[in-house]
Write a structure and sequence with these properties.
mainly alpha, Multidrug-efflux Transporter Regulator, Chain: A, Domain 2, 6 helices, 3% strand, 140 residues, two-stranded antiparallel sheet, single chain, 2 strands
Length: 140
Amino acid sequence: MKIGDLAKRTGLAPSTIRFYESKGLLKSVGRLSNGYREYPLEAVAILSIIMNAQQTGFTLDEIKQVLPANSTNWRHDELMAMLHKKLDDIESMEVRLAQNKAHLRSLIELINSKPEGMACKDNASRVMDSVGISDGKNGS
């Protein structure tokens, strides 16, 4: 199939498909006598794998390491190891994100708990002192 047909089937721009090809992610791309690229039907599946892998956080280099030269030659152990590593990475990121979220919620609560009648400037100093940031003016 030509690149335009492949682009329609995958929803990718032709330039993106050519980019993936230039990075070695799409293999076995033939050329017609007029110079047009001729992609095999399996290119749709490979591009789908690439798009899904990118959405789950894999880099193009990581994807390239496990994509087989053809669809019948997957390196099972290497693929499974990479998938487990990425899952561990995502779980670590979830922990960090939860900590960041809790920190932001605490900061919002601290800012919103401004005592009645306190000037914003004084509230800012109170918040900074509470989170351990001092301007050094108050001997802090």
